[in-house]
Backbone:
């Protein structure tokens, strides 16, 4: 039986893209067909992000475009899923009158049933957060996959309550997924030819599963269990909260060649007062000591990336310069950089005034981006003449004459295509040249 065709479009973090694969699995199990062209679909899902105002503006524009299609096809169902659906709830029905379905991050199992209600002429919603839902029994359907790299959700929600962040309100409290189901999924993917998995969570280092016999699996134990599946399987993870990443995790990375030497460790700000306002739970000095421990333990072979927010409430010029000086100290390999975007319902929106003019926010962000590009280029230049074990992921974006892959440090490497090079295999590449974003080699 075919209950109709569905199309899904994802925005935001890697977790959202992973959730879209869970949604696709739920739909296919209920006899809906995945369609890659939205114009041929009976149902259009937009899996949304609420982390910044700009992200929501992009989604609102996309909804308007789909509305034009619905004017010609009255039977088309438009569903808003994920964090924006949870944040706005029923306001979406009022503001976007052509929206038929509103589904929060913990309600994806309900979608097929709710679609049946919509077909009977009703609008439908389900936005309650769960204390238990991890979708552990659902085998995700891969969407737009290169069949080499895969994301795997190991936990959901967040307990940290950073003042700027909407995630605890849209995704709920932390809950870890049964490690047995994680191992089962990884083994299945490896058999299918996947050679790299990225373990996802808002804060993977707080992963904690307790069996009925009281045996506890923490994050360090989990990544070692996955690494033991096969030495040809690479293991990555994201995101780490600085206050929770442990020495045990670092020594586990050091022990296993197939656990990648890359840690994403968001700092957000280099100033103690701003960090306190952000409720980050650490100081500048503490963070720098953690960076020192990472570099010492992993013998300076680990790449480090970050998230940085500039222009937070009441941030002074000197405090912005503290972030720049911290960047000079750490020299991140790459960073995700933004100016502060106030989100309704967050602690900072309730407690602090968003008082930094947009012009100054943009100026400070440009300074941060300029510095990061400088550091990225400096770090990449150090790789010239080094040899890296590289996992082949496919053709380069510009030409089939070249292949691209990544090394353990998560750096993209471009190299000439040869018949003996196969996707999913490892090759040793000697680096000849670089840009701030890419390594080139042979």
Residues:
């Amino acid at each position: 039986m075919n209950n109709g065709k569905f199309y899904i479009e994802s925005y935001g973090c890697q977790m959202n893209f992973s959730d879209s694969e869970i949604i696709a699995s739920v739909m296919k199990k209920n006899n809906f067909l995945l369609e890659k062209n939205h114009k041929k679909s009976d149902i259009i899902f937009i899996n949304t992000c609420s982390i910044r105002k700009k992200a929501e503006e992009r989604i609102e524009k996309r909804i308007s475009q789909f509305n034009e299609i619905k004017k010609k096809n009255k039977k088309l169902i438009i569903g808003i899923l994920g964090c924006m659906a949870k944040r706005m709830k029923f306001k979406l029905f009022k503001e976007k009158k052509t929206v038929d379905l509103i589904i929060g991050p913990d309600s994806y199992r309900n979608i097929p049933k709710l679609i049946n209600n919509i077909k009977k002429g009703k609008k439908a919603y389900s936005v309650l957060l769960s204390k238990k839902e991890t979708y552990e029994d659902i085998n995700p359907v891969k969407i737009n996959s290169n069949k080499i790299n895969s994301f795997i959700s190991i936990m959901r929600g967040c307990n940290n309550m950073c003042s700027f962040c909407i995630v605890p309100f849209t995704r709920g409290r932390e809950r870890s997924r049964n490690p047995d189901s994680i191992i089962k999924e990884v083994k299945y993917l490896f058999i299918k030819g996947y050679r790299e998995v990225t373990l996802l969570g808002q804060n993977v280092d707080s992963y904690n599963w307790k069996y009925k016999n009281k045996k506890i699996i923490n994050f360090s134990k989990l990544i070692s269990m996955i690494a033991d599946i096969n030495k040809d399987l690479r293991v990555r993870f994201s995101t780490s909260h600085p206050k929770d990443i442990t020495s045990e995790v670092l020594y586990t990375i050091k022990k296993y060649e197939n656990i990648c030497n890359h840690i994403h460790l968001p700092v957000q700000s280099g100033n103690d007062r701003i960090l306190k306002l952000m409720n980050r739970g650490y100081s500048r000095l503490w963070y720098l000591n953690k960076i020192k421990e990472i570099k010492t333990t992993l013998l300076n072979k680990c790449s480090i990336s970050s998230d940085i927010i500039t222009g937070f409430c009441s941030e002074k010029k000197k405090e912005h310069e503290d972030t720049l000086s911290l960047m000079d100290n750490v020299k991140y390999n790459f960073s995700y950089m933004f100016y502060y975007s106030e989100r309704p319902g967050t602690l900072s929106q309730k407690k602090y005034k968003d008082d930094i003019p947009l012009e100054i926010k943009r100026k400070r962000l440009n300074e941060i981006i300029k510095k990061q590009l400088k550091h990225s280029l400096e770090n990449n230049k150090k790789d010239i003449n080094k040899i890296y074990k590289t996992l082949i992921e496919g053709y380069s974006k510009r030409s089939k004459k070249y292949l691209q892959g990544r090394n353990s440090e998560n750096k993209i490497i471009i190299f000439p295509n040869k018949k003996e090079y196969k996707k999913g295999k490892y090759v040793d590449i000697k680096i000849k040249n670089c840009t701030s974003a890419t390594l080139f080699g042979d």
Remarks:
- The longest strand covers residues 387-395.
